[in-house]
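Could you join me in thinking about how sequence relates to backbone shape in a protein? We need material for that, and I hope you will provide a protein of your own picking. Label the sequence line and the structure token line clearly, so we can match residues to local backbone shapes. Would you write everything just below, so we can both look at the same thing?
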Amino acid sequence: MDIAAAIIDLLGQRAASASICPSEVARALSPDPAGWRPLMQPVRDAAAALARADRIIITRKDEQLDPDALGSGPIRLRRGAGFSE
């Protein structure tokens, strides 16, 4: 299971200005419809790594977050400047 690839794939299916919720990634990766919640932290970790590489941007209420200081709470994932690399 390549979580980073799933994030890039889901963002690639949306408009360039669109965002996705990490739970969409977890649900897409979970074969069990009720078993996606344990994937949330791994998805957030993969998103942080992608954000460090400038491939995505992590936001909360339209404010860009530091991938090393996400804390808890809802986040959204958007394409970054290096998305297509």
Remarks:
- The chain has a mean pLDDT of 94.
- Residues 40-52 form the longest helix (13 residues).
- DSSP finds three helices and four strands in the chain.
